[in-house]
From TrEMBL:
It holds the Pfam family PP2C_2. Residues 233-489 form the PPM-type phosphatase domain. InterPro entries: PPM-type-like_dom_sf (IPR036457), PPM-type_phosphatase-like_dom (IPR001932). Residues 59-68, 84-95 have a biased composition (Low complexity). It comes from Streptomyces rishiriensis. This is Serine/threonine protein phosphatase PrpC. Residues 114-150 have a biased composition (Pro residues). Residues 31-177 are annotated as: Disordered.
Length: 499
């Protein structure tokens, strides 16, 4: 069954796309000037099946090789009457020519050798719709026109020879620029992220005001869980340990000058009594009060040993003040006792070493020349020390007893009697003073054991040495809070110290 050829689509206005009649110079709908619009190229296929023929120049259309063919239904002819045939074109005429209009003549190029003819019949594909004439079956596809120059009237950007693109509309960008973010919103989000602390355990939950993770419930490290400080030639490190839920130790460091201009180094270490109320507050208050008292008394010419005694008394007053609670607080918790702590301190000048203590925190002397013997500079206020002093037990037996660390002297409102201990020494060689709590000396009790743990360059690197000593306690089990201060002797001149 044969199929009637399709009529060619009427030309349209490049501005409003309304159909135009042949010979129109202006659009009847919008009045667009059609004389300024270049002739539209033919539609071209997505896939070329036959070799395209080379287009003939317009002036060759009127040559002697063939007649001029115009009109709708002629392949390759422009709707406005521009001829497409010329010299060298193969002409096929006849009443049965595919694609020929009524009374028209069709022209077609012969297909290359071996090419299959296009399908025909009821299921044959229809020619593409557009401004050009239909392509008859068996005819080659029209050649691509050369890119034309941009036309201000049509809005064609020019150079975009892409099939399926309308040349009468400007090309649209592939992507649209997103709106820039509001800097105020970004700043607020950053501020929220900074204020919200992330859990150190699960790395996802937010830490609540009580110090616990809202996601996993893990307690977060507190500021006092691990503290380090280096003040010129002396340094201190404090750590919570591996068994306690908080750090109840505290320390204070300082440097000052005596009236003659010679330097003086001050180190205070305090250990809160765990069985007392708020031991962490007691140790912090005592360390601050003692350090402040020493740094104020030494420049005024007070003897270092007397200054140490006064500093311990000042620390005792500061701890006693913590017991001044409202009557309602005492009624709600009548079983709680007053805050309490121990204290040990050291003052180092160019020719004098002074120590003072109350409780069982200790101070050790470790000479730089390890061929000289080290020494323990303090005596504990403890049950074990009393047993040894009374001759009832030797030191090994006393400290093996479960009552060994029961202290007999401390700072606090419920202490039996305040008895500050002070002692002064004049070492004849350089070395370091190790001021520490029982969290360290439990793992290096004898002076010889402590000397083995102290690094040889402790005088030059006090912070490193303090870290090594705390690490020794943690490696040994870390059953208690660990705090240690390393003070070189003699005191270096002002401005000297570790980098």
């Amino acid at each position: 069954m044969s199929q009637m050829p399709r009529q060619a689509a009427l030309p349209t206005c490049p501005s409003c796309a309304e159909p135009l009649d042949a010979g129109d110079r202006f659009c009847g709908a919008c009045g667009y000037d059609l004389s300024a619009v270049p002739s539209r190229p033919d539609d071209h296929p997505t896939l070329t099946m036959n070799a395209p023929a080379q287009p003939a120049p317009p002036e060759a259309a009127t040559g002697p090789a063939g007649p001029t063919v115009s009109g709708a239904g002629v392949p390759g002819a422009d709707p406005n009457g521009i001829p497409a045939s010329g010299a060298g074109a193969h002409q096929v005429s006849g009443a049965g020519a595919h694609g020929a209009g009524v009374g028209g003549v069709a022209t077609a190029a012969l297909p290359p050798e071996g090419a299959l003819p296009p399908p025909s019949g009821p299921g044959a594909p229809m020619p593409p719709q557009g401004s050009g004439a239909p392509v008859p079956p068996g005819s080659p596809l029209p050649p691509r026109p050369a890119p034309s120059s941009p036309s201000p009237a049509s809005g064609d950007p020019g150079g975009a020879d892409v099939p399926g693109v309308r040349f009468d509309r400007p090309s649209e960008p592939d992507e649209y620029a997103l709106q820039a973010p509001d800097p105020r919103v970004a700043a607020e989000a950053a501020a929220v992220a900074e204020t919200n602390q992330v859990c150190v355990a699960c790395r996802a939950g937010r830490v609540d005001d009580d110090g616990y993770c809202e996601n996993c419930g893990h307690a977060q490290p507190r500021e006092r869980d691990h503290m380090e400080q280096e003040s010129g030639p002396l340094a201190a490190v404090s750590d919570r340990g591996l068994r306690h839920h908080r750090n109840e130790d505290a320390f204070g460091l300082g440097r000052t000058a005596l009236p003659d201009g010679s330097p003086a180094l001050v180190a205070i270490v305090c250990d809160g009594v765990s069985s007392a109320t708020r031991p962490d507050e007691a140790s912090l208050a005592a360390s601050k009060a003692a350090s402040k008292s020493l740094l104020a008394a030494l420049p005024q010419g007070t003897h270092p040993q007397q200054a140490m005694h006064e500093a311990i008394v000042a620390a005792s007053y500061a701890v006693n003040a913590l017991a001044d609670e409202p009557a309602t607080a005492r009624e709600q918790a009548p079983h709680q006792n007053a805050p309490a702590c121990t204290l040990v301190g050291s003052i180092v000048t160019p020719g004098l070493l002074v120590v003072g203590w109350v409780g069982d925190s200790r101070a050790y002397w470790v000479p730089a020349d390890r061929s000289s013997p080290p020494a323990r500079l303090t005596e504990d206020d403890s049950w074990a020390a009393q047993m040894v002093a009374a001759g009832l037990m030797n030191e090994a037996e006393a400290y093996a007893d479960e009552r060994a660390h029961a202290i007999t002297g401390w700072l606090g409102a419920d202490a039996y009697e305040l008895e500050p201990h002070t002692a002064s020494f004049k070492p004849d060689r350089p070395g370091v003073v190790v001021v520490c709590t029982d969290g360290l000396w439990n793992y290096a009790e004898a002076a010889e054991d402590m000397a083995e743990v102290v690094p040889p360059d402790a005088s030059a690197r006090p912070l490193h040495s303090a870290r090594v000593l705390v690490g020794h306690a943690l490696d040994g089990g870390g059953h208690d809070n660990v705090t240690v201060a390393v003070v070189p002797f003699p005191a270096p001149a002002q401005g000297a110290g570790s980098a």
